[in-house]
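Q: Start with the shorter request: fold the first protein.
A: Done. Sequence, then structure:
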Amino acid sequence: MRQTATESVEEQNLTRSEQALLEALLNPENRIKSVTDICKIAKVDRATYYRAFAKPHFAELYNRRSVDLVKQSVASVLNTFVREAQRGSFQHGKVVLEMAGVYTEKSDVRHSGHVSTDVEIVIGVDEYET
């Protein structure tokens, strides 16, 4: 993952505890772990976790880095979906076609209630006096 100069400076402004916490949070192996488990991995207490996220720059850095990790995974996910679609998987094919904008699930829309059909039509007529 490439870091911008701004992110590098922001990370330098983090405490050692915050850096350890950020590393633990961004590790894909820890994605479904609890706050308590993340804190144990980072060797920080829960108060440090909550103080870090109370700082806007920490939360913004975490969010940006998380989005970058997701973006890095998109290509391999797309390739997997295309491969499975080519193997005949209807569900994978459907998703690929939806993403390409060539397929939209048909939906049955129903309306309950009153719809007014009273429309006033005004036709302009030029009147000439003779």
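Q: Next, the second protein, separately.
A: Sequence, then structure:
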Amino acid sequence: MPDLYPPGGSVIGWSELELDKVTELISRKLVFGDRQMLAQVYLKRGALVPLHRHDSEQMTYVLDGRLKVRVDGEDVIVRDGEVIRIPSGVPHQAEALADTFELDCFSPVRDEWIDPGPR
């Protein structure tokens, strides 16, 4: 993927990017720079993102669908047109209550998503 990012400003079309199938119910496309990452995420109804935490602050914008998100032990429903902020280091999980299309923004970049090999 780094070959897509020449020095200076760059324009990348989502259609140019390969869809990464994470599970049978979750897939994504990634765009990233030095300090932030944007991900298009597709979750089929019933998809569960297990409880986890990471160093990155996360903003999730639900474009279409509905998620039940548990953040630090509290459940919230996030619908079309809504954004949820998940602070750095806070445990969270998500369940797709409907087929959902969302944008996730992370800062700093989640290196384990770019290079999932041993660390």
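Q: Describe the second briefly.
A: Residues 36-109 form a domain with the Jelly Rolls fold (CATH 2.60.120.10). Strands lie at 20-21, 26-32, 37-43, 48-52, 57-64, 66-71, 74-79, 83-86, 92-96, 100-107.
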